[in-house]
Amino acid sequence: KNPSAYREVNEEYAQEVRKVVDKLFKWLSVGLGLEPDVLKQGAGGEEIEYLMKINYYPPCPRPDLTLGVASHTDLSAMTVLVPNEVPGLQVFKDGLWIDAKYIPGALIIHIGDQIEILSNGKYKAVQHRTTVDKDKTRMSWP
Fold first, then answer.
1. Residue from 53, 64, 94, 135 carrying the catalytic annotation
2. What phi-psi label fits residue 22: left (phi over 0), alpha (psi between -120 and 50 degrees) or beta?
3. 23 is catalytic
4. N or C: which end of the chain has fewer CB within 10 A?
């Protein structure tokens, strides 16, 4: 109820994210040499559950002693992430933790465990973690 436009804006955003997810499912299916709807149907079709949340990481005086979120892969099919300009997302590649670059207006897409399973491992779930900043609040919207 407060702010008054929150629910309306959030519902509109959710509809737009669903369009992005539908396109990603199609492209990922085609990339496997399958019909465009195969992965989406395998993940639940029109019954797919969507979860929206906000991650809030307040400033931390000793960021060297903590993580925002420990290393993990997402249990979901995929994650569409809207970051803010405060860095903190890291992905594990070739034995190293690499900082994800923030690009204004861009979305970050994580392949999740369900897509890895449905693709028989051809698409890998992204192992990632988050760090905190000493001076700035970091937020993300997966």
1. 53
2. alpha
3. no
4. N
